[in-house]
Amino acid sequence: MRKKLLFLLPAVFVICSLRATTYYGTPSDYTSYFSLLQPGDSLLLEAGDYYDRMNLDDIVGTESAPIVISGPASGASAILYGDACCNTVSIERCAYLTISNLVLDGQDIPYIDAVKAEGTSGNWAHHITIENLLIIHHGGASLTVGISTKCPAWNWVIRHNTLIEPGVGLYLGNSDGTAPFVAGLVEYNLVLNPRRYCMQIKHQNVGTRDVAGMPTEAHTTIRYNVFSRDEGSDPDTPRPNLLVGAFPASGSGSDDYYEIYGNFLWQNPNEGLFQGTGNLAFYDNLLVNYYSNGWGVLSFPHNDFAPREVHYFHNTIYTTSYGIEMYNVDAAYEQNVTGNAIFAPIALQLDSDVNTDNNLLPDPPELITEFLQDPYSPLGQADYRPAPGYMQADPAIDLSLFTQYERYNRDFEGHLRDGGYYGAYLPSDELLWAPDLEIRPEVGLLPVSVLELYPAEKFYLRVHPNPVRGDFLSLSANIPTAGVLRLSLSDINGRILLTQSEEVAPGLWEGQVALSHLPKGYYFLSWTTESSHGSVKIIRN
């Protein structure tokens, strides 16, 4: 049993209790504390520039006492810089470990990944949480990856991360099918303009699931992410925004499935938006691809594996090529395409074995402007909900086919379904989130204004859009008491670039911050009132 103590190490505070130890690390010392971390411990990194790689070997917490390594949750960041020698955050034989609140800057060095569970012999990594990371300058080569697993990996949670212009955003598994990624949760991530995939999960070979501790039956959930390839795609290596491969053909893992819902897949000039082999359920997703070569959804034999159980339902798809294509399927399994709203010159191209019934397929697809409220406005303003009097399903969609899936009876914004409408959205009084290139707000906690979500006695600030492409950042705040609202904008090194203050009255306050004089980059907006303070990361594209 560890004793209770309080002492100082060079530049690092250590606070211990009977249950856990919290270390406070600096750029010069933080790596020396990896070997000390025990279940329940935390290593909190101060803001600053870190040039020593985060090499994490044999760091194992427990289910009830995970180990946490984190940078500051607000204010200036802990920035880890890449080195040509190695991956920036390297994971080997780790479990019940959370890595959060860091900026990983690869300095555009080719072939170093930001976070990687290494492919070394005998390696594994399970119950790993990767959250609130900003990954930048990892596009030095098309095969440079933001978050990668090259060993057996299970029960990972990857959430609230922003990846800007990587070679590949998330690459989970190995290209030869020998490193299964199992029972994962990938949610609320933003991947912008990778050279290849926003995200890919590789296929799994027979026998690769026979790893001690790995679930034999599981499913991986991919939900509420924003994946865009609008700019920066490598035309010589066209890839879809999101691809999920096959499970083992037999034995352990062969009945696993992917559940993919609530995602916004935006633009791909050289390829399509989603490709999957199965088993999978793909529902309540919004897919938009204006490019002439850009298609929507594809299932066909991949890595010599024919599509098995595949369900595409309640998606809204707008493309200038085809909407959903599925061919050479395994007829021993069930494939369903139903309840979708598809606006495309070729809405469906399907094998005769595929069950397709009760989809909305307007002809010509330009009728989208009649069926949807405002599909052509810019991001952050477009509205893909049904126009009044349109999109009703007659007969109703049979939801009983899909009851095994977690949110089969909810729409893109979380409203309860009854099968009465096509597409990802139900009609509603208010648009809760206008799709944009930003981390999606939590579904079920989506404000129309800050006053409608938060109690009047508390201060809350909403920033939008984020990332911002124009010259102004819009703000709205709930002001509980009269006073002065002070705002400041700083770069990732903490250097203050501008400040402004304003007398505010109780209620809803709205304002703007001018960004026209600032280059593309990453900034922090901080606020202070008489009763609160905080900051938020801003991305200017």
Question: How would you summarize the topology of this molecule?
Answer:
Blueprint: E1 6-9, E2 12-16, E3 21-25, E4 42-45, E5 48-50, E6 54-57, E7 67-70, E8 78-81, E9 89-92, E10 94-105, E11 115-117, E12 125-136, E13 145-149, E14 153-154, E15 157-159, E16 162-164, E17 168-172, E18 181-182, E19 185-187, E20 190-192, E21 199-201, E22 219-223, E23 226-228, E24 242-244, E25 257-261, E26 264-266, E27 274-276, E28 280-283, E29 286-289, E30 297-299, E31 310-313, E32 316-319, E33 322-326, E34 335-338, E35 341-343, E36 346-350, E37 355-357, H1 368-371, E38 372-374, E39 383-386, H2 450-453, E40 460-464, E41 472-479, E42 483-491, E43 496-504, E44 507-514, E45 521-528, E46 533-540
Parallel strand pairs: 3-4, 4-7, 5-8, 6-9, 7-10, 8-10, 9-11, 10-12, 11-13, 12-14, 12-15, 12-16, 13-17, 14-18, 15-19, 16-20, 17-21, 19-22, 20-23, 21-24, 22-25, 23-26, 24-27, 25-28, 26-29, 27-30, 28-31, 29-32, 30-33, 31-34, 32-35, 33-36, 34-37
Antiparallel strand pairs: 1-2, 2-3, 38-39, 40-41, 41-44, 42-43, 42-45, 45-46
Characterization of the model:
The protein is mainly beta. The protein folds into two domains: 23-386, Pectate Lyase C-like (3 Solenoid), CATH 2.160.20; 460-540, Sandwich (Immunoglobulin-like). It is 1% helix and 40% strand. The strands form five sheets. The protein has a 26-stranded mixed sheet that branches. Strands 6-9-11-13-17-21-24-27-30-33-36 form an eleven-stranded parallel sheet, with no helix packed on it. The protein has a four-stranded antiparallel sheet with strand order 43-42-45-46, with no helix packed on it. The longest helix has 4 residues, at 368-371. It is globular and about 65 Å long. The termini are far apart. The model is unreliable at 1-18 and 445-455 (pLDDT under 50).
